[in-house]
Amino acid sequence: MHRSSSLPLTGGALALAVLLAGCSALGPVSGPGTTSAPAPAVSLGAQWAGAAAVSALPAADPSATRDWWQGFDDPLLPVLVDEALAHNLDLRAAASNLSRARALREVTAATQEPQLGLGAGAGRSRSGGRSGNSLRVGLDASWELDLFGANAAALAAADADVATADAMLQATRLAIAAETGLAYLQWQGARAQEADAQTSLASQQETLALVELRERSGLAGGLEVEQARSAVLQLQARLAALQQSQTQALNALAVLTGASPSQTPGWLEAARARPADAVARAPALPTLPQPAELLQRRPDLQAAEHRIESQLASLSQRQAERKPSLRISGNLGLQAATLSALGGSGALVAGLAAAIDWALLDGGAGQARVEAQQAALDAARIDWQTAVLNATRDVEDALAALVSAREREATLQRASVTAGEALRLARVGHEAGLTDFLNLLDAERSALNAADALVGARTDLASSHIRLYKALGGGWRSPDPDARSPRP
C-alpha cells in the first residue's frame, strides 16, 4: 500500500515528526561510505617472485619520465603509438563513454536541485446552460528533501561511475599503446626473418643449379637433385608464411591507428628503407615498484575499485529509498476568466504544500532490491580481487618471459655464429669434394634455423619489455597520487 498526503506547511511539520519517529522500526540507514571499506583485502607479497632474476639486468634511470615507447631505439615506434593514441576507435569509444558518464552525473545532480517551471493555460467549460472561461499563468516550484541520503548516494554512485569510465579510458590507452608496439615488433621480426630466408633461398638456388649441372655431367645422382629442389621449395613456402605474417601485422597496425587495412600507411616506406635486421632494441628495465603499488599504477584496478564504490553508494541509495520521502511544492500565478481580469488584485493565487510518500507495504520488493544490490556489491568486490590477482600474475609472467628471452638471445647469438661458421666450412668442403651434399644441406638448414631463432628471440625480448610495462601500469613513470588520469 502506498500512502500519499498533501499537508499545509503548519500541520506538515507535526505529521512529519511523527512519521520520522516511526522510521526506527526499519533499523539504521547506511549512507554513502558508512558501510565496510570499498576495497577488500588481498594478500600481496613484499617483493615480486621474479625480481631477483632481473636484478642483474641494466636498470633505467629512476628520474626518467619518458613514456615506454620513447625508450626503444626505433624512431618509428613513437610515431606509431602516438598515431594510435590519436585515432584509435576503441579509444574514441572509451572517451565517449566517459563523456556519457559525466553527462549522466550532471543529470543526477540536476534532479536534486529545486525545480522551477513557467506554465500557462486556457480553458472553456459549460455547465447548466452557462459557459465560462478560465485563464491561468504562473510559476510552479518543487523540491524533494534528501532526508535519508538517497539523493546523495545516487550522486556518489554517479561520481564513481565517472571515475570508472575515466580509469577505463586510461586502461584502453595502455592496452592500445602496448598492442601497437607488439604488432610493430611482429612486423619487424617477420621482415628480418624474411630477409634471412631470402639470403638462404638465393644460396639454395645456386646449390640446386650446381647440383643439376653435376647431374648432367654424371657427377651427381637424382637423389641430390631432389634434395636440393626440396630445400628450395621449403624455403619458398617459408617466405610465403613470413609475408602473410607481415601482412597480418600491417593490418593490425592499420586498425590500431584508425585506418583501413586496404590503405598503405605513410610510415611503411620509411620503415622498409631501414635495414631488414633492425629489430627494435628494448631500453633498460624500469625500477620495479612494490606489489602493493600496482593498485595505484594500473588503471584497470582503479576502475574495479571505483565499481565497488558505485555499488556501495547504490546500496545506500536502495536502503534510503525504503524510508519516507518529502517533497515541498508551491505555485504563484494569476488566474481569471478574461485577459483584462488577470491584472486585477483578485487574480493572484498562491499555494504551498508538502507531500510525504512512504511505501508501508510493498510485498518485500524494497528489501529484495536491497539484497540484489548487496549481491552486486559482493560481485564487484570479488571482481576486484580477481583483477588484482591477474595483475600480479601478469607482472610475474612478464618478468619470467623477460629473463628467458634475455638468456635465449645470448645463447642463440653464439649458436648463430657457430652455425654460420659451420656453413662456411661445409661449402668449402663440398666445393673441394671433401663433404657430401647432405652435409651441406644440413649446414644451410642449421644456419637458417639459428638466424631465424635469433630474430625470434630478439623480438620476444623487446615484446617482453612491452608486456612488462603494460603489466606495471605503463612505463617507468612514477605514479602521481594526485592524478586521476595517468598516461599509459
Helical proportion, percent range: 55-70%
Order of helices and strands: EHHHHEEHHHHHEEHH
Q: Mean pLDDT, nearest integer? A: 81
Any idea what the radius of gyration is? Answer: 37 Å
Number of domains: 1
DSSP summary: helix tally: 11
Largest sheet: 5 strands, antiparallel
Q: How would you describe this protein?
A:
The protein is of the alpha+beta class. The chain has a single domain, classed as Outer membrane efflux proteins (OEP). It is 59% helix and 12% strand. It is built from 11 helices and 5 strands. It has a 5-stranded antiparallel sheet, covered by helices on one side. A hairpin with a 2-residue loop joins strand 2 and strand 3. Helix 5 runs antiparallel to helix 11. The longest helix has 67 residues. The N terminus and C terminus are likely disordered.
How are the elements arranged and paired?
Layout: E1 2-7, H1 9-21, H2 51-54, H3 76-87, H4 89-111, E2 115-127, E3 130-145, H5 150-216, H6 222-256, H7 267-273, H8 294-297, H9 299-320, E4 325-336, E5 348-359, H10 365-431, H11 437-471
Antiparallel strand pairs: 1-5, 2-3, 3-4, 4-5
Helix pairs in contact: 3-5, 4-5, 5-6, 5-9, 5-11, 6-11, 9-10, 10-11
Short description:
With 488 residues, the chain is α+β, with helices and mostly antiparallel strands.
List keywords for this structure.
elongated; 488 residues; 59% helix; Outer membrane efflux proteins (OEP); five-stranded antiparallel β-sheet; alpha+beta
